[in-house]
Specification:
The protein is α/β, with parallel strands linked by helices. Helices cover 57% and strands 17% of the residues. It folds into two domains: 311 residues, P-loop containing nucleotide triphosphate hydrolases (Rossmann fold, 3-Layer(aba) Sandwich), CATH 3.40.50.300; 214 residues, no CATH class. The protein has 19 helices and 15 strands. The strands form three sheets. It has a six-stranded antiparallel sheet. Strands 8-12-13-3-14-15 form a six-stranded mixed sheet, with helices on both faces. Helix 17 crosses helix 18. The protein is elongated.
């Protein structure tokens, strides 16, 4: 709700502060005093179009500042405020709008500069302004659909929830199917490349560790002659040269040394141990000599085998350059490629399965949408009848409002578009309510709409400008009653010229005009009960001090009080909040000031 509104240098208003309460607040005043500037200021505060002509003559700028109390349930509003870094102190938000004489405009929200569009976003959830030139809160089909859904309550909520669940599943399936289908060509090309690679690797058939073994074999074959000469020479040193009978050999020398120590070892265990170790050395040298002989016998130069091994090594290295680091890397690539190929091969069958599932979900979605549409049409019918009934008591007896539900493409909230249409009289074509009604009629239509929505609508504040235009008598009383009823669940601010409406106020503000001979300016004061009688009598008779008018004013106030007592008994917890109590002295003095300035 709006707790305070401060207007500076806007039109005829030089400086005015409106302290606002829950319930119904009316703003009255003489013609030309600037009552409509209050609504204009509220419109600016919530993103209305700036016009340099609104700036008071001689001033460089006009300013409107508001202090708002945010309901805790408005999570989306608080999220948006967090996004722009706005400061919300104990649920209180400060908002300001400045319009320069040059037509430039700027806004602040929670102490932070913000685009004017942010104010409009806040207005969607915080306030509904219905003025002679204001756009409707229900200006878009989406907002009208939301309103009908809210009005329908559980009868619409349940099919909407079912539809939303199916729609979410359908979107998930469609997204996956679209992705798979869109990339089918790329997947086929990837599969062909993988199959080619696997076939190439399979043809070569690399083995783990094969590259190291080939490298060793190629090295050995490349140096076969040198290796044979070295092995033969070493064997001759160990076992002797068979061609020379007297050539020394290591085995013979070791055997001789062992024989010498064997004889002496009988007398000293230490020499016996040394002889034993020489025997072991002799055995070892004999084994080595035998291995060298076998190596020489087995080793032979094989140019053909060398060429074969080198060719194999070249093939493995070429494969490694394509698919991995060495045969082991190639084998790892082959394993991964086979796994990926298996996945790609299953995508085609998956596309078929998803296609079948998509058709099933589409059918479920269509059925859910039809169920939702039927629920909306029932709610729209009840709503239309209720608004039309309200209009009969608001001096529009021949008018009818219809909430038309038309079916289009499936979307996140069904296949429906909702539009509020007005038929001002029988036989007249149904037109959107923003185009089918005059300014005064439009305010009354919206009053009827908001009264019907009362209880379902979550809007904290409603503002009406000249909602009673063109009505009087009993119809004016009915306007006041409906405003009072709407004010049970929301803050309602009304600019009115009818005492029958003003009598229902919980708080009465009057715009007073002063004239110093050169400049006319207006301010706003709050009235106590006696001052209200004086203001209502002025509105009734156009004269100050008329006894008959004051008697009529008292009758209006008593009738309004009785209606509100019956409609909202004292202490009824269903009324969310009660207006603040102010001291009699302060309000009485304000009333006297207003009366004096009028005189």
């Amino acid at each position: 709700m709006i707790e305070e509104l401060r207007i500076s240098r806007l039109g005829v208003i030089e400086e005015a502060v409106l302290e606002l309460d829950p319930g119904l607040t009316v703003v009255t005043g003489e013609t030309g005093a600037g009552k409509t500037m209050v609504v204009t200021g509220l419109g600016l505060l919530f993103g209305g179009r700036a016009d340099s002509g609104l700036v008071r003559s001689g001033a460089s700028r006009a300013a409107v500042d508001g202090r708002l109390r945010l309901p805790s349930r408005l999570g989306d509003v608080r999220t948006r405020l967090d996004e722009i870094g706005a400061d919300v102190d104990d649920d209180t938000l400060l908002v300001s709008r400045i319009v320069g004489a040059d037509g430039r405009s700027r806004a602040q929200v929670g102490g932070r500069s913000a685009p004017v569009g942010v104010l409009s976003e806040l207005a969607d959830d915080l306030v509904a302004v219905h003025g002679q030139s204001d756009q409707l809160r229900l200006r878009s089909p989406a907002r009208q659909r939301e309103a009908i859904d809210q009005f329908g309550g559980p009868d619409v909520d349940e099919p909407l929830a079912r539809y939303t669940d199916v729609y979410r599943d359908y979107l998930d399936i469609e997204a996956t199917l679209t992705t798979l289908t869109r990339h089918a060509h790329e997947r086929a090309r990837e599969a062909d490349m993988l199959r080619f690679g696997l076939a190439e690797i399979e043809a070569v058939n690399p083995l783990e560790g094969e590259e190291a073994a080939l490298a060793a074999e190629i090295e050995r074959l490349s140096y076969a002659d040198a290796l044979r000469a070295s092995a033969t020479g070493a064997h001759g040193v160990l076992a002797g040269d068979p061609a020379e009978a007297d050539s020394p050999d290591a085995l013979g020398l070791v055997a001789s040394a062992r024989a010498i120590l064997d004889r002496a070892g009988e007398h000293d265990p230490a020499l016996a141990e040394a002889a034993k170790r020489l025997a072991e050395a002799g055995y070892l040298l004999a084994d080595v000599a035998a291995e060298l002989a076998s190596y020489v016998d087995a080793l032979e130069a094989d140019p053909q085998r060398l060429a074969t091994a080198q060719e194999r090594q070249a093939v493995l290295r070429a494969l490694a350059r394509k698919y991995g680091d060495g045969p082991d890397g190639v084998l790892a690539w082959a394993r991964d490629a086979a796994s990926r190929l298996g996945t790609l091969d299953t995508d085609d069958s998956r596309i078929e399965e998803l296609g079948v599932l998509s058709k099933e979900l589409r059918l479920d979605l269509t059925n859910a949408a039809a169920e939702l549409s039927a629920a909306r049409r029932r709610a729209a019918s009840v709503f239309s009848d209720a608004v039309t009934a309200e209009l009969r008591d608001l001096a529009m007896p021949h008018a009818a409002v219809a909430a038309e539900v038309s079916t289009g493409e499936l979307g996140p909230y069904g296949a429906d578009e909702v539009e509020l249409l007005l038929m001002p009289h029988p036989g007249a074509p149904a037109r959107p309510i923003a185009k089918g009604a005059s300014g005064g009629e439009l305010s009354r239509v919206m009053l009827a709409v908001e009264v019907v929505f009362a209880g379902q609508s979550g809007t904290p504040t409603f503002v009406f400008d000249e909602v009673d235009a063109g009505v009087g008598g009993r119809a004016a009383v009915e306007v006041g009653r409906r405003l009072a009823r709407l004010a049970r669940n929301a803050q309602v601010i009304v600019v009115t010229h009818l005492p029958q409406v003003a009598a229902f106020a919980d708080r009465h503000l009057v715009v007073v005009k002063s004239d110093d001979g050169a400049v006319t300016s207006s301010g706003v004061v709050a009235l106590d009960e006696q001052a209200r009688v004086e203001e209502l009598s002025r509105m009734l008779a156009g004269l100050d001090g008329s006894a008959l008018a004051q008697g009529h004013a008292n009758e209006l106030l008593e009738a309004a009080a009785q209606f509100k007592a019956e409609f909202n008994p004292a202490g009824d917890p269903s009324h969310p909040v009660q207006p603040r109590q102010r001291t009699k002295a302060s309000t009485a003095s304000a009333g006297r000031a207003a009366s004096k300035q009028r005189r």
